[in-house]
Each structure stands twice: as structure tokens, then as C-alpha cells.
From TrEMBL:
Family affiliation: Belongs to the metallo-beta-lactamase superfamily. Glyoxalase II family.
Origin species: Cyanistes caeruleus (Eurasian blue tit)
Occurrences of domain Metallo-beta-lactamase (ranges): 3-128
Protein name: Hydroxyacylglutathione hydrolase, mitochondrial
The entry's keywords: Hydrolase, Metal-binding, Zinc
Family annotation (Gene3D superfamilies): Ribonuclease Z/Hydroxyacylglutathione hydrolase-like (3.60.15.10)
GO molecular-function terms, A-Z: hydroxyacylglutathione hydrolase activity; metal ion binding
Pfam families: HAGH_C, Lactamase_B
Keyword Zinc: yes
InterPro entries cross-referenced by the UniProt entry: Clx_II_MBL (IPR035680), HAGH_C (IPR032282), Hydroxyacylglutathione_Hdrlase (IPR017782), Metallo-B-lactamas (IPR001279), RibonucZ/Hydroxyglut_hydro (IPR036866)
Keyword rRNA-binding: no
UniProt cofactor(s): Zn(2+)
PANTHER family, sorted: BETA LACTAMASE DOMAIN, HYDROXYACYLGLUTATHIONE HYDROLASE-LIKE PROTEIN
């Protein structure tokens, strides 16, 4: 029985189902930090702790991608399992979110003081599977970084097998994610900056302009096309 939703931010690809779920499950609690989140019932603040049975949750406010972005750090007392971070569009495997409603200063605080200080074995569950593209950019930033090369080869293999690349761990992210490596000499050399915030700002700008990936045709769609299943639609046009 669905009892609660923890929403990181208001963007439709993270919150669009809230209203319908709230109708399907009367009394459903919807947690978040932004009034723009659909069906919001409980507004949470930085450092607030929640519990759902044995699961403990700490809310971590990370404004930048959106002004009301909240991450959720979860653990169970006396459990051998590593804690988990649901990082939405703030921290990705090998990357970070775009600065739609915030600044490089904010993202630097998010990555170094809010998320970067969590236990190193924390599993990072981010909001999107853009690992291969992120790591291609990371390789451009640090072409000699063996961890980037290894992780990229692994992620490509996972993609080819239609398997997830999420989660990673925070420890791993510090080894190959350029946005967590702003004090490393190769990253500073790539950006031409030494101040960590300026390094981050330049990295994000470079990442935004990074070349678009070559689109691979969807194999199921190509098969349907070969079978003529799109014929009726094409004839209408």
C-alpha cells in the first residue's frame, strides 16, 4: 500500500504522477520543499527527519537545479546495508544537474558541504540514466584518469545489455565525477580556473555545450517500421 511520496523537485519528469496517485490512494502524504510540486501535503525543510517504519529519512536542501530542490538521505538503524541518497537532479553518476534556477555557488555548496560530506559508502540513486554521456564529458576533462576510462567502459557495457548504471557510491563519484573534483589539478587545467566555484561554473558551461550524442534508432521501432506497422499512420499524414 502506497503511503507516501518523497518528491525531489517540481519538474514533470519527477512529479507528474503525484496528482493521479493521490486520487488512487486517499490520505497519501506527498513530501517536498517546493509549492509547485503537485499534490504536495507536507512541506519539508533542510535537516528535517522523517521515518517510515524502520526507514529513517533526512531531508537535504540543495537549491540550484530548481530553487526548491530537496535530496533525501535514507538509512535503517542497526542495518548492515549502506545508506542511500536519492539525489534527484542535483548529483548524477559522473555529473551534476543544470543550474536552471540557481548559481554555481549554490551547486558548489550542495556538492561539497551537503552531499559530499555524507558517508563514503552511501549509494547514489540519481534521477536520470545519463551516465555514459556524463562520463564521455569526464574523459574530455581528464583524458588520463583511469577510473573514468574504467567506469565509462563498464557503463557502455551495461547500456548495451539494457541494465542500469545506478546506483554508484559517493566514494566512486569522487574518483571520476569532475564536478566533485574541482580542486584536482587536471580539472583546473581543463577549465583554466583555480577557484573551486569558478572551476564548477566553467565545467557546467562546457558540459552544457558538449556535443550531442549520436542517436541510436530504437530497435523495436525499427522492427515495427520494417513490418509496416507504421503504414496506417504514414498514410494519414
Amino acid at each position: 500500500v502506497l503511503r507516501a511520496i518523497l518528491t525531489t523537485h517540481h519538474h514533470w519528469d519527477h512529479a507528474r504522477g503525484n496528482e493521479e496517485l493521490a486520487q488512487l490512494f486517499p490520505g497519501l502524504r506527498v513530501f517536498g520543499a517546493d509549492e509547485r510540486i503537485g499534490a504536495l501535503t507536507h512541506k519539508v525543510t533542510h535537516g528535517q527527519e522523517l521515518s517510515f517504519g524502520a526507514i529513517r529519512v533526512r531531508c537535504l536542501f540543495t537549491p540550484c537545479h530548481t530553487s526548491g530542490h530537496m535530496c533525501y538521505f535514507m538509512w535503517e538503524d542497526d542495518s548492515p546495508d549502506a545508506p542511500a541518497l536519492f539525489s534527484g537532479d542535483t548529483l548524477f553518476v559522473g555529473g551534476c544537474g543544470q543550474f536552471f534556477e540557481g548559481t554555481a555557488e549554490q551547486m558548489h555548496t550542495n556538492l561539497t558541504q551537503i552531499l559530499g560530506t555524507l558517508p563514503e559508502d552511501t549509494k547514489v540513486f540519481c534521477g536520470h540514466e545519463c551516465t555514459v554521456r556524463n562520463l564521455k564529458f569526464a574523459l574530455k576533462v581528464e583524458p588520463e584518469n583511469e577510473m573514468v576510462k574504467e567506469k565509462l567502459a563498464w557503463a557502455r557495457q551495461r547500456d548495451d545489455e539494457d541494465l542500469p548504471t545506478v546506483p554508484s557510491t559517493l566514494h566512486e563519484e569522487f574518483l571520476y565525477n569532475p564536478f566533485l573534483r574541482v580542486t584536482e589539478e587536471p580539472v583546473q587545467r581543463f577549465t583554466g580556473r583555480t577557484d573551486p566555484v569558478e572551476v564548477l561554473r566553467t565545467l557546467r558551461s562546457e558540459r552544457d555545450n558538449f556535443k550531442k550524442p549520436k542517436e541510436r534508432p530504437n530497435p523495436q521501432a525499427m522492427l515495427a517500421f520494417d513490418w509496416g506497422l507504421f503504414g496506417p499512420f504514414l498514410e494519414k499524414k
